[in-house]
Every structure is written in structure tokens, then in C-alpha cells.
Amino acid sequence: MKAALLYNINEELVLEDIKVNLPLQTDEVLVRTAACGVCHSDRTIQTPGRWPLSAPLVLGHEAAGVVEEVGSEVTEFKPGDHVTVCGTPSCGSCRWCMRGAPELCLNKKAVRADGTPRLTHGGGAVEPFFGLGGFAERMLVNERTLVKLPEGMPLDRAALLGCAVMTGLGAVRHAARVQVGDTVAVIGCGGVGLNVIQGALMAGASRIIAIDRLPAKLEMAKTFGATDVVDASAVDVVQAVRELTGGGVKHSIEVVGIGQTIEQAFSMLEPRGTATVIGAAPPDVEVRLKAAEIVIPEKRLQGSLMGSSFFRLDIPLYAQLYLDGRLKLDELISERVPLEGVNAALNQLDSPLVARAVVTF
Ligand SMILES: NC(=O)c1ccc[n+]([C@@H]2O[C@H](COP(=O)([O-])OP(=O)(O)OC[C@H]3O[C@@H](n4cnc5c(N)ncnc54)[C@H](O)[C@@H]3O)[C@@H](O)[C@H]2O)c1
Ligand SMILES: [Zn+2]
Ligand SMILES: [Zn+2]
Rounded mean pLDDT of the chain? Predict the structure, then answer.
């Protein structure tokens, strides 16, 4: 099957004809990929100094498709089912699953129990990113990475549910827990940030302040529900947010992934405010906070992984909200490209025109 491989950090992906290592194991499912969104986390993996690469990697983790074949013990899925994949499968019985944090599950089964590779090329192992590998014509995954979609859900839009939508809406609902009337600032209005904005709107936030350094992103943010916009390339964003709110926001949500914006997120809070960090900064990034800014105003700083969500509950809900006309997904897709266009889509992630590019098969 055709797949886009990352051989080395800082290089473009290479289209290759690779092998799916069949037969399926008992708990595996073979999915024909219909669409895969291009998320900034894929781009981050390509960037030097981030994560080491042990084998050629198939990036792509925001995907949807059609089940083609199921392993002998799979009971929840059958050929023909339309599914979204998600990189946070959970076992239901480890201590994090039992504590209600399935995204932190200790048994993700991203690799096969017997250690054989799911994908190979030229006899060597190929690794699917997040256990998924969406920039390929097929995804061979563990059954726990899948969720069934409601009837009528278009697969290109269903792909976005697996990362951008779940991460953005989930951060609002499960991590920040935004309440009616709260003030919210969102730093970074890309594919994930726009979903934070529409989540805050649905939660009833009184002010939604969108912050980005690209004016075109701020225009897009307004159409997703931002009440105010701040151009990070032109003004001091912390001061701007303080002025707009008369002292600071209750929630700041960081969706860029650099030290400076995490520091800004904390500084723009009012007392008792919470900064929620979604942006995935590289492991060596440090954040500097003034100790006095933490205790006396009783502020909080927290992370949120994949929306702190149980995706099998949330993805069907978001799909239904879309089908009912209450969630914007059509507007999130700014371009559809074939697999041959994946490098251009990854390079373009900072372009003002792109909300989300989606690779379609
Ligand atoms: N926590 C999670 O589970 C999770 C899930 C998905 C994505 N992420 C991370 O979230 C971040 C955003 O992902 P995305 O796909 O939306 O990326 P994106 O590239 O679509 O959006 C990032 C936005 O940030 C803006 N930006 C860049 N520097 C800025 C600055 N200094 N100030 C203000 N705005 C700035 C860009 O203009 C862009 O609009 C990435 O770090 C990604 O890895 C985390
Ligand atoms: Zn992602
Ligand atoms: Zn678990």
C-alpha cells in the first residue's frame, strides 16, 4: 500500500509502497483510510531536537476510514463500519482508567504484544505514529483505537474529530471546565485553537478573546465565536487581555506549544484563574514563572492531553452535534489534498490561509 514515510528528522516524507504485516492478530482491525488531517503535532515530530526516531515513521493521527477486516476476537466492529481512530486507546482497568483519566492509560497497545511490526518496508520495521499511521492507504490498529461513527457522518470531517476537535472541545469541557459567564482567552487559533473557541462558545463563556500573530487566523476566530481579537505580532498580549477584561481572564488556554505563550497564558489570568496548556512544546522547553504570581493570587497551571477525554464517549457526541448543525467542521477544512500533497500541507501549517488541511484518499 502507498504510505508517506519519515526516514529522518528534518526531511520531507517519502511516498513508498510498504507492506501491511498480515494476518491480523486477534485484537486488530484493518481500516481503509478515507481521510487524515494534518496536525501540528505531525510537524513537530519532523523538527530537529524533538523526539528520536527508531524506525521510519508513518505520521498522521487524525484519521477516519472504513473497516475492512477484523481479528478473530474483535466483537465491536465489522467490515464496512465507518470509524474514527484515536491515539489514546484505554484498557478500562489500569489505575488511570479507573481514576477517570483514560487518556493516561498505561496499556495503550501501540505495539503488538508479540513485538512483530505492523508495517514493514524492504524487510525492515516501519512504525505507525501514535500506533495509527494515517498518512497511508490502510491503518492496521488495535481495536481500542477505534470508535464507530453515526450514520451519515462524512469521513473527511470525521477525521478531525480524532484530534483537533476532541482536543479543543475536551480541554474546555474536561480540563478547564468553563462555566456560563466565564472569560476565556485562547492563544493560537489554528486547527485546535478554533475548536477551543467553538467549545468556549458552546459552554456559554461571556468573553472569548482570540490571540494569534496572523491576522487571517483572527478573522477565522471571529467566525468560530471569538468576541475579541488580539494581534500577538503587534501588541503586548498580556497587557491587552488585562485591559479588555479589567484585570485578567478566568481561563487562558494555550494552543501554540512554546515557552513564551505558556508564560503569557499564566500572566494574563485573574486571581483564581486557570491556565490550561494544550500546545505540545518539545521536551527541552522550560517555562519561567514568578513564584509570587502563583500563591497570592491562587492561580493554577495545568496540561490537557487529547482533551482529557474518553474518546469513545465524546467523538459520537461531536459527530452528532455536527450532524445537527451545532458544531462547525465544514469551515475547519481549508484544503483537501492527495497523499502526494502531504509535504506541502505540513510545510504550510503556519500559513494564514490554512485552518486544517486534510489528506483524502
Ligand atoms: N495536548 C494535546 O493533546 C494536543 C493535541 C493536538 C495538538 N496539540 C498541539 O497543539 C498545538 C497547536 O496545534 P494545531 O494543529 O492547532 O497547530 P496550528 O499550526 O494549526 O496552529 C497554531 C497557531 O498558533 C499561532 N501562533 C504561533 N506562534 C504564536 C505566538 N507566538 N502567539 C500567538 N499565536 C501564535 C499560529 O499562527 C497558528 O495559528 C501544537 O503544539 C500541537 O502539537 C496538542
Ligand atoms: Zn494532533
Ligand atoms: Zn488503562
Answer: 95
Closest CA relative to residue 301, chosen from 338, 246, 251, 351: 251
Which of helix, strand or coil describes residue 24?
coil
Q: Which of 241, 183, 189, 180 is nearest to 207 (CA)?
A: 183
pTM: 0.96
Question: What is the pLDDT averaged over residues 298-320?
Answer: 97
Class of residue 116 by CB neighbours under 10 A (exposed 0-12, middle 13-18, buried 19+): exposed
Contact 249, 268 (CB under 8 A): yes
Question: Which residues are near ligand 1 (CB < 6 Å)?
Answer: 39-41, 44, 163, 167, 187-193, 211-214, 217, 232, 255-257, 261, 278-280, 304-306, 349-350
Q: Whose CA is nearest to atom 17 of ligand 1?
A: 40
Residue-wise pLDDT tens digits, 234-259? 999 999 999 999 999 999 999 999 99
Contact residues for 192 (Cβ-Cβ < 8 A; gap 6+): 39, 40, 163, 164, 167, 168, 255, 278
If you search the block for the grid coordinates 498580556, which residue do you land on? 238
